[in-house]
Amino acid sequence: MNLKEKYRVFKEWQQRPYQVAPLTQEEHTCATCGTSYQGNYCPRCGQSSRIGRYSMKTAFLLFLDVWGLGNRGMFRSIRDLLLRPGYMIRDYLGGMHMAYFPPFKMFFLLATLSILVNSGLNIRGENQLVKVVQTYERSIDMDIRTVPAEQKAGVKSGTDNERLDFGEKINGTLKVFIRFLIDHQTVVELVWLLVLSLPLYVLFRNCPAIPDLYYTEFFVAMIYITNMMNIVSIVFSFFCVNLDTIGFISPILSIVALKQLCGYSYLRTILGLVASFAIITIAVLIIVVLVGIVVGLTMAMNAQ
Ligand SMILES: [Zn+2]
């Protein structure tokens, strides 16, 4: 089989919805209640027919189950999120809930795992969160260090000192803000998803693959896409690869996922994403200008 043929088979696999294995005619007797039945679960008490001797696999699945991981295709969900994200999300939104791990549960479990990996559970055992905070703080301190140099040169005046005080105040606020963002990553991520999904939904809700998409469905899709990106970033964090050097991976992954989900061309998907970011940037600028005008007016009124 040549490469082209392999790719065609892969594409076909990507688009095929998950298939549940057909029911066997095999007769089971439930070990808990003694009922005889055909199928995967006892109709009387709900015990799985696959429970047999206490094997390593049973033990491992029960161990995972403590964190709510041992069921509902967690491994399948991770594989599909990496290899066919958009098609998998379509399956899920189409009603195949038992086939995939629930999106919000996955989101919070990944958030927990991400904190564990970033704070020391990685191959070097180093706290990467502290490093990120330090890098930001250093870059904030950089621009204030230029001011004292001017002062040494003899341009010390009242206005310069005022400017220095003001600069320090701004930098202090920035540091608190960045600390807050890093300490509350999960909430920040959720709020960001809510903001980003508004313009995206307007631009993608009439897409060819799911023509009557609800906003809530689109938001669930965004959570799954974020889960996919979080899985990738956790793997890189585990191997202590600097995320800045592979920063291009996240946008590419999200474009592929969104394209598979909506059924638009790559060009239309990218344009939709760019337009959404532009709309958010303009909205933020307008808010900043409005706040600036209000603050300016209040200060002017107080001065009088
Ligand atoms: Zn039973």
Automatic annotation (TrEMBL):
Q: Where are the transmembrane segments?
A: 98-121, 187-204, 219-241, 248-267, 273-300
Keywords of this entry: Membrane, Transmembrane, Transmembrane helix
Q: Which domain of life is it from?
A: Bacteria
Query: What is the annotated signal peptide range for this record?
Result: none
What Pfam families does UniProt report for this protein, alphabetically? DUF3667
Q: What is this protein called?
A: DUF3667 domain-containing protein
Organism encoding this protein: Prevotella communis
